[in-house]
Amino acid sequence: MTTLGAEVVGGLLRIVLHLSNSMPASIRVFPNLLLFTAAITGLVCLSLTPFVYRFRRLPPPTVVTVLAVAVSVLPLAIVLAQSLR
What we know:
Blueprint (H helix, E strand, L loop, with lengths): L1 H18 L5 H4 L1 H26 L6 H23 L1
């Protein structure tokens, strides 16, 4: 949930800051901070997913796992795309 929240708020802030050029530089750093937060929490989620399958009696529903992995990989893909640009 933290990863998804950081992605959504960071994306919305990036759009708002792109539309208004009069924001101070200290606020312009905030979307990148949220992207960093999303990437770190995404890595934690990806690293804990195999443990959930290993130690739970019943595995989580496949839809939940797919959504969690997709949300976790998205900020890493964005960071990779930004670094290649």
